[in-house]
Amino acid sequence: MADAAWYRLDNVGKFYSSQAGRAQQTVFRFCAVMVDPVDPNALQRALDLAVENHPGFNVRLRSGMFWHYLETAQSTPAVQPESPSICAGLHTGSSSTLFRVTFLQDRINLEVSHMISDGRGTLEFFRELLGAYVRVRYGAEDASPSPAVSRERRNEDSFTRHFEPEKAGKSPSRKVYHLRGWRDGSDPAFFEYHLSAGQVHGIAKAMGVRVTALLIAAVIVAIRSTMPESERARSIRMDVPVDLRALFGSQTTRNFFGLAFVDYAPGSDDEPLEEIARHVQAQMTSETQPDALKRRMNRMVKIEKNPLIRIAPLFVKDAALSFAERMAAREVTTTMSSLGRIELGGATDPYVREVNILTSTRGLNFIVCTFDDVLSIGISSVFARHDVVEALLATFEQMGVEGRLSIVGDGEGPAVRPKRLARRALAAAALVALAAVLALCVGCGADPLVTAVSCAAVVLGCLFARNIVVHSPDLPRTFERSYLVLAAVSLAFLAATGSPFAATYAVPLLNMVALLVNAAMVVRFRSDFVKAYAKYLLYDLALGLVPLAALATGLVEQPAFAVASVLCTLLLLLLIYLLARKQLAGELRKLFSA
Question: What is the pTM of this model?
Answer without folding.
Answer: 0.81
